[in-house]
What we know:
This protein is α+β, with helices and mostly antiparallel strands. About 30% of the residues lie in helices and about 15% in strands. The protein has a domain at about 5-105 and about 160-205. Strands 1, 2, 3, 4 and 8 form a five-stranded antiparallel sheet that branches. Strands 6-5-7 form a three-stranded antiparallel sheet, with no helix packed on it.
Amino acid sequence: MNKQAGRITNLPKKKPHSRNSMIDFLTKHFRYSDYDRIDSSSYAVNIKIQEVNIGTVARTQCYEMIEVENYLDESGFMAQLQNFFSKQEYRYRIVLDGRSGGYAVLRRIFRKKTDHKSRCKFCQALNFDVATEKKNQCGMCNKPGRVNLISPVYENIFENGGMDTERDFEDWTLEALRKRVLLVWTFDLAVERACHSFVDWAMTHRVEERTIQIPQSIKISVPM
Ligand SMILES: [Zn+2]
């Protein structure tokens, strides 16, 4: 991928600073409606291969490379999204939506403490009961392996209702606007980086077909 070519996703190239330009940036940002509901949408980037700004050669190569098993992990694409998630302290996440995952969407996350009290040291299954010396059997693998949790377990829940669906920023303070612009700008860049990772990988690898043996358990008859 030619880095000189600049951004490959269709995003504004100038970060907005004035109140009006920030509102403009947030209002006009590309959006995607998820949950099959038009009344809730969130900031998004169209990452379909035919939509990103790459040349014909790279485009053909990208189409070829999406045939590869786990291409999003292999190419480092997912690692970039994961990086964003941890940098946002697990409060915002980028998810792929659309029929073929053609849209990267910004989603807000709630971290909710679960009521789990113990975890099995053999199969890692969580349990809502406190483990005691006498009562430590695991409900999943049945082994006596439950130990009490030292720190609580959190569940990541997607917030319903999209993000800034109403796009009504007039009453927002300058500080609130700046914070939101920074978040969306960081999101855009993370998606851009992920796409770069994918294109770089696609341009430096080729598909090779392998036949693999998958072990499977079958039932056979044996003489008694
Ligand atoms: Zn277990």
